[in-house]
Each structure stands twice: as C-alpha cells, then as structure tokens.
C-alpha cells in the first residue's frame, strides 16, 4: 500500500478534495438547512461537533464553496446575492483558506475573515452578514479582549445579532485559553432559544493510527495514565525518546524524507511576546520558539521552521506528517505516579487571563489544568504518519520509555 504524503496545508482542506459518502451527505444536509433559514429572521445555527482530525474543516470548505457558488451564480437560489463570510480566529489557518480562495472561481480572499475584524466592520455599518461559517468556533472569544480589539462580551453572541444562518464546528477539547473558555454545555445553553441542529463527527481522518493510540491520547489528556499501545497501527510510527536532541534529529530525517515534520512543545519554557528569541533547552537540545510569522505561508511550510519549536498558536488546526512533542515542565508524575499539571511552571500568560465570571478558586484551578491538557491533545494529534514524544519530567520520561 502506498500512502499519500502532502507538503501543503491547502491539500488537507481544499474544496476539491473528494468527500466520503457521510461527509457529502452532511454537506448537503447543512446546505439545505442554510437555504431553508436564510430567508428568515435568524439566527439559525447548525453545530458540527468533532475531535481533532475528524474532517470538520474539509466539510466546511466544501460547504462554503457551495454557498458562495449559489450566491454568485444562481439567481433562483435563496442564497442569491447574499453576503456571506467564513470566519476563523487563527491567523495561520486564515492564510490557508485565503490561499485556497485564490484558486477557486467563486471564492474571494475577502470572504475569509477574523471574527473581530468582521464584528467591528459590522458595528461601523460597513458590512452585514447573511450566512457565517465558523471554523474552530472553540477559539471565539467569550469575554472582552482589548489586545485583539474586541470590546463586546462574547464574539458568538455578537455574530448571532447580525447573521441569519451560522454554521460552526466545535471541539471543547481544543479550548486553550480562559478568554475563549467554552464547554459544550455553555454553547448549548447559549443556542437553546434559537432554531438549531447538531451533528457529531467521530471518524478519525488525520491520523493513520489505530483506535488504541487515539484512546490512549484521549485518556492521557484526561489524566488517566495507561501503558502505551503495543502498536499504533501498521502505517503509524509511534516512538518515545529519553533524549530530546535525538528526537529532533529523527524529525529532521522525516522532514527530509516526506516534508511537513516539526518539533512542537507545551508551555513551560521561557516565552515573552517581546519580539526576541526565547529558547527551549533540554540537554543538547536547544532551539527557539516559533517566531511571529509575517508571511502569507503557514508556519509549518516555511523551510526554516525545522529549526524552531512550534506552539499551539502555530500548529492548532494543521496537519503535519510527523510531529515531535515535548511535554514541558508543568506535565509530570507525582510521588504516586499520577499524572499532574503544575500550574506554577506554566509560562503562557495569555492562556490564563482573568475572568470575572469564574470566581471559585478550586473550579478555576481545574479549568486551567484542563486547558493545559487540551494543549497536549492538540499537539499529539497533529501527526498524520507519526508521533514522537519526549517528556521533561524524569519520572514521566521513564514511564513513557518503559510503558
């Protein structure tokens, strides 16, 4: 069997990609939902739930292409002449969608926006929105964030005030920061008064690993420590390392062979948004964190980033062929060999910005710990063909090596 290898992020979510029967049926179902409700007062909301790698983005890409084609070419469609936008609150993923738009006849780069940009333009009377498609809706801000020029209370609420139809994908295990804190319960409570439908995707498309490894990652990121599966599947390369530099060299080799292979890490190492370089050092391993990417090319596709360490802010939502994950100082085993998260060693200050609606100290601690575990879930599920793991904590490192 010959496995396909991709070196472009656009190859993973292009509307030209073939869909499975189930995915095609879902696109048709949501398209019908859209045309049914776009002439109403709104908002009507369709929510697609699914873990990382379950094909949410490719479904949205096909759906939005169909919506815009109808809006711009079919005078008999309820969508004719509607103003529609695709939103994603992640600058690196936005670059991918805009690159795709440049290759499609009925998609324009301006169709793809950050939520804050569109919300502010709507508030200024410069734009309105009929249909909104929102990728990675778990990244929507759920409180004001002046750093990102959002002054409302909740981005989804602000968008619901203007749109007639909203289609969003959501995964609470990819919620990473308090300022975008969501749970399925919170989302469902917000949407309850409105016309809405939901579906849940479960099939894993990204990782060529077996269900045993997927289950192990899900358990690990809920602090349930089990031995690693004896095999991750015939076509998946799972390795643990006791030396971070050896893992780096292995990732470099895979990058030379198949491309799109990178080292990534959890927080817990020096990191400040001051424009300078900050390094992760583990023995002979010494590489800087990812730098802010001012180009239109996604971080992982830049050749020089093989000499950087990616973070959740550059990798979330992306496929890598091979990923090397560093579990930083906050992730460790205690004296009883239980997996714990030491929040005192977490260095991502952006993740834990204060919220006035979370006042119970115990609840807040549990939420923060789960956000860190969510970041591990995001990083471990990046690799299509392989996952390599190194842990800073000696106990955890030994456990993984002998598990």
Automatic annotation (TrEMBL):
Pfam families: SLFN-g3_helicase. Residues 42-180 form the AAA+ ATPase domain. It comes from the Bacteria. This is DUF2075 domain-containing protein. It comes from Levilactobacillus lanxiensis.
């Amino acid at each position: 069997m010959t496995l396909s290898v991709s070196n472009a992020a656009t190859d993973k979510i292009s509307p030209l990609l073939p869909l499975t029967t189930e995915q095609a049926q879902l696109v048709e179902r949501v398209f019908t939902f859209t045309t049914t409700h776009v002439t109403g007062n709104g908002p009507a909301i369709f929510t697609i739930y699914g873990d990382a790698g379950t094909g949410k983005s490719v479904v949205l890409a096909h759906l939005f292409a169909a919506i815009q084609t109808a809006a711009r070419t079919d005078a008999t469609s309820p969508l004719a002449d509607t103003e529609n936008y695709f939103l994603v609150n992640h600058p690196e993923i936005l670059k991918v969608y805009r690159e795709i738009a440049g290759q499609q006849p009925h998609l324009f780069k301006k169709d793809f926006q950050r939520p804050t940009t569109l919300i502010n333009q709507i508030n200024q009377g410069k734009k309105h929105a009929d249909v909104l498609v929102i990728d990675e809706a778990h990244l929507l801000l759920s409180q004001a964030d002046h750093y990102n020029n959002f002054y409302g209370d909740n981005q989804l609420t602000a968008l619901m005030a203007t749109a007639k139809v909203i289609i969003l994908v959501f995964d609470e295990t990819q919620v990473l920061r308090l300022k975008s804190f969501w749970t399925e319960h919170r989302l469902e409570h917000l949407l309850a008064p409105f016309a809405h439908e939901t579906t849940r995707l479960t099939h894993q498309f990204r990782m060529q690993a077996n269900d045993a490894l997927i289950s192990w990652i899900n358990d690990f990121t809920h602090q349930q420590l089990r031995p690693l599966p004896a095999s991750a599947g015939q076509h998946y390369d799972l390795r643990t390392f006791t030396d971070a530099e050896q893992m780096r060299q292995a990732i470099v080799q895979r990058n030379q062979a198949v491309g799109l292979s990178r080292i990534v890490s959890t927080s817990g190492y020096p990191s400040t948004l001051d424009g300078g370089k900050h390094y992760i050092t583990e023995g002979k391993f010494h590489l800087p964190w990812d730098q802010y990417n001012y180009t239109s090319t996604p971080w992982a596709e830049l050749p020089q980033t093989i000499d950087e360490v990616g973070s959740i802010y550059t990798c979330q939502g992306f496929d890598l062929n091979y990923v090397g994950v560093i579990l930083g100082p906050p992730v460790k085993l205690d004296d009883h060999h239980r997996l714990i998260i030491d929040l005192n060693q977490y260095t991502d200050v952006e993740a834990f910005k204060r919220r006035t609606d979370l006042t119970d100290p115990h609840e807040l601690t549990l939420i923060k710990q789960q956000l860190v575990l969510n970041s591990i879930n995001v990083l471990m599920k990046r690799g299509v063909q392989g996952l390599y793991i190194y842990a800073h904590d000696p106990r955890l490192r030994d456990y993984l090596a002998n598990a």
